[in-house]
From TrEMBL:
GO molecular function ontology, one term from the record: phosphorelay sensor kinase activity
A GO CC term attached to the entry: plasma membrane
Source organism of this protein record: Caloramator quimbayensis
PANTHER family listed in its UniProt record: SENSOR PROTEIN KDPD
Protein name (record): Universal stress protein family protein
Gene3D superfamilies (UniProt xref): HUPs
Coiled coil: none
Superkingdom of the organism of origin: Bacteria
Length: 129
């Protein structure tokens, strides 16, 4: 694994805090920064106008910190993220904290099991970076 960083985002403007955390690590390690959004196959990537605007906003934020934003479609979101991480030789993964109503880590636990050599950063919803 390298010190390259992957930030996983949804179509929400609040994901800016995750990209900012990635930018901090990028500076610290002098590494590449990738931002990724995976949409479930069979859904509209841009969703509603608000979701499209949010994704465009995140694209601009990513570009501003020197990151590539990749949007993928997949039947298996976890597998798509894991494959991207392996292909790009990612060493650090940044994710947002799951909603409080989730009883387990869900996607986070699955990614940790598929990518045991990666370091994970789970950013709380109320944390500003």
């Amino acid at each position: 694994m390298t010190d390259d960083i992957m930030v996983c985002v949804t179509q929400q403007r609040t994901c800016e805090r995750l990209i900012n955390k990635g930018a901090i690590l990028k500076e610290k390690y002098g590494s590449n920064l990738y931002v990724i959004h995976v949409a479930k196959e069979g859904t509209d990537i841009l969703g509603s106008k608000d979701e499209g605007n949010a994704l465009e906003y995140l694209f601009d934020i990513s570009k501003g910190v020197g990151a590539d934003l990749t949007v993928l479609k997949s039947r298996d979101i976890v597998e798509a993220i894991a494959e991207f991480a392996v292909r790009k030789n990612i060493g650090h993964i940044i994710l947002g904290e799951p909603p409080k109503e989730y009883k387990n880590e869900g996607i986070i636990a699955e990614l940790k099991s598929k990518l045991p050599l990666c370091r994970f950063y789970i950013i709380p919803a109320n944390e500003l970076v």
